[in-house]
Amino acid sequence: GEPAWQAPPMPSHSVESLTQSHNLVAATESQLELVADEDIRGCVDEAMVFEGDLTLEGDLDLNSGAVLIVTGNLVCSGSVVTDETATLIVGKNLRARHLYLEGNLEVHGDATLRGVVYGFYEAGISRVYGTTRAAIGLLGNHDWESEAEEYEIGAQFSNHSQGHCKFSSGDAEALRTAMGDDGFAMIARML
Q1: Biggest alpha carbon distance in the chain?
Q2: How far apart are alpha carbons 125 and 138 in whole angstroms?
Q3: Can you give the pLDDT at residue 11?
Q4: Rounded CA gap, 69 and 89, in Å?
Q5: How many other C-beta atoms lie within 10 A of the C-beta of residue 165?
Q6: 120: how many CB neighbours lie within 10 A of its CB?
Q7: CA distance 70 to 12
Q8: Global pTM?
C-alpha cells in the first residue's frame, strides 16, 4: 500500500522559471568572459546571469540550450542536471545533492555533492577549478577535469563497452551497497 505520509515533490527550476522568480538578466560581454575554458566559451554566445549567491530549494534542470551563469555560490537542495545542450557556469562554489552531467559545467571553486557526481555524455565538458567531493563519483566518456577529487566510491567507465571500469576508490560491491540493487542494475552494463 501507500505510505501514510509522503514528502511532496521538490520543485524543479529552469532558466525560464528563474528568469521570472529570481530576475535573471542577459549576460554582458564582460560576464561572458568569466568562462575560462576556451572550448566551453566557444559554445556560449549568450547566457542568463544571476549576480551573487543563488540558493534553490529543489532541482536545477538545464536543457534545450540553456546557459546559466551564477557569479557567486550555487546551493541547490536537490540535483543539478545539464543535458547535452546546456551550460552552467558557477563563479564560486557549487553544493547540491547530485550532479548529472551531459552538457557543460565550469565551477571556479569547489563542487560538493551529498550523493553522486555522474558525467556521462561525450559532448559535455566539465571543469572544476577546486576540489570535487561526493559520496560516489561515476565518470564515463565525459570530458571531465577537476583540480582534486574525493569520492568514497569513484569509478571511470566506458559509455559503450562493458568491462572497462576502473575504480579509484571502493569497488563494484561497495557501489552496489551504496546504490541498492535496482540502482546498481541500471549502470551495471557499463561497468
Answers
A1: 56
A2: 15
A3: 82
A4: 5
A5: 19
A6: 18
A7: 17
A8: 0.87
